[in-house]
Design goal:
single chain; mainly alpha; Amino acid/polyamine transporter I; two-stranded antiparallel sheet; 20 helices
């Protein structure tokens, strides 16, 4: 089959090492959502009870779908589209797999914008300029209303472009092996600083002592959606990374390691955010402005705040960059497989395309708010379409394909007979139903 013949032909049959795969996959899963979105939705939906609900959702939906994506990728040895074609023999499945190629392209276009904010704020914090004016809301709005975010968007895309251009072992693997341990060190330093703040115990109590009366049907679906998306599911990244995994690598063990790394990161992030917000009287459910408006106010009031603020935004930047690298690899692998392009050519064509698509999104946030459709600015429109429509559809396709159509899934997953039956039951009957509910809720079709 032509698609199979072309699979990774431009990648010179590159493979991850066992540890390199784990680092790269954790880097993909651990992103801005863990440090930016997770704390404020946890604050909004009840603290510890929501966190426990998130853990349950991670186990019953996130991990089964993650293993399915990795199995499809390694079995197909191709892109998020061509792997489906090889394993099914049908171009229809390849067309459905294209959803998981288009989604990361769109996501990267606006994700790079937010990643650029983190680099900008890291520089402002280390230089002390961030704290020269304590009206942090005005600072953020002023930054957004200019054209500087476009510059930082370009910087992020160029940085990740150079990493992906170097290939799997020499680029993505090496990049993550350096940054993921570095990120963990920063997490521990910031956690220790947060836990030693006056009044930090109230934040720890909020995060770790559950009040189940605060749970609602809506919070359940939000936790389910975040567990699904925090593992980079439905966007082709784990299928693509799986295609570069050696046969001797245990996908089951890898799935547990990735899920554990994602959960550990979320736990430590909570032990940074909540003690800090409670110590300085900040509402932990404030929303997206928590990171770029509320937390700078906290850093400005603590000793050596510029230093710790700088470390915090460097931490965010690392999380953003490792995720952006995995997003870029998806369309790059596809274009190499489909068109036979070189890796270098694929990288820079995709990077330029993402930059062009992202500019209107960046401008719509401040410099040109008129860039909207139906009253919704371009940034929010792209985010909604990719996150609330394409990703659930991509995840649903994976569960149905692995659960009903992929005949070699048992061999590729490598599970014992008992665990395989449990996993297959989750893929066939539990995950698809829950993913549909997430889609209906996130798209606004059902409301509570």
């Amino acid at each position: 089959m032509q698609v199979n013949k072309l699979s990774h032909s431009s990648g010179k049959e590159e493979r991850f090492s066992s540890s390199g795969f784990i680092f790269a996959a954790i880097g993909s899963a651990v992103g801005l959502g863990n440090m930016w979105k997770f704390p404020y939705i946890t604050g909004q939906y009840g603290g510890a009870a929501f966190f426990l609900l998130f853990v349950v959702c991670l186990v019953i939906v996130g991990l089964p779908v993650l293993l399915a994506e990795l199995a499809i990728g390694r079995g197909g040895r191709g892109s998020a589209s061509s792997s489906f074609v090889k394993l099914s023999g049908s171009k229809v499945w390849g067309g459905l797999g294209m959803i998981s190629v288009i989604a990361p392209f769109i996501i990267m276009s606006f994700y790079a914008i937010v990643a650029g904010w983190t680099l900008h704020y890291a520089m402002l914090s280390f230089s002390g300029k961030l704290f020269s004016n304590t009206d942090f809301s005005a600072q953020f709005n002023g930054f957004m209303s200019g054209y500087t975010p476009i510059v930082w968007q370009g910087v992020v895309l160029i940085l990740v472009g150079f990493v992906v251009m170097k290939g799997i072992s020499g680029g993505i693997e090496k990049f993550n092996k350096i940054l993921i341990p570095g990120m963990f060190i920063l997490l521990v330093i910031l956690m220790v600083r947060a836990l030693t703040l006056p009044g930090a115990s109230a934040g720890v109590s909020f995060f770790l002592n559950p009040d189940f009366s605060k749970l609602t049907p809506e919070s359940t679906l939000v936790a389910l959606g975040h567990a699904f998306f925090s593992l980079s599911l439905g966007m082709g990244t784990m299928i693509t990374y799986g295609s570069y995994v050696e046969k001797r690598q245990s996908l089951g063990a890898g799935t547990l390691a990735i899920g554990g790394g994602d959960l550990l990161y979320a736990l430590i992030a909570g032990l940074i955010i909540f003690p800090t917000t409670f110590s300085f009287g900040i509402d932990p459910g404030e929303g997206p402005g928590l990171v770029f408006v509320a937390l700078p106010a906290a850093f400005s009031a603590m000793p050596f705040g510029a230093f710790f603020g700088g470390l915090f935004f460097i931490l965010l930047a690392i999380a953003a960059l490792t995720s952006t690298v995995s997003l870029l690899e998806v369309p790059v692998t596809y274009t190499m497989d489909r068109f036979g392009w070189s890796r270098t050519g694929s990288v820079w064509i995709i990077v330029i395309g993402c930059f062009i698509l992202g500019v209107p999104a960046a401008l719509s946030l401040g410099a040109a708010p008129g860039l909207a459709f139906g009253g919704t600015i371009m940034f929010d429109l792209m985010d909604f379409f990719a996150s609330n429509v394409l990703l659930p559809l991509g995840g649903l396709i994976v569960t149905i394909f692995a659960g009903y159509f992929y005949k070699g899934v048992a061999e590729e997953a490598g599970l014992t007979a008992g665990w395989f039956r449990v996993w297959l039951f989750m893929l066939r009957f539990v995950a698809p139903i829950l993913v549909v509910f997430v889609f209906l809720h996130s798209s606004g079709i059902i409301k509570f």
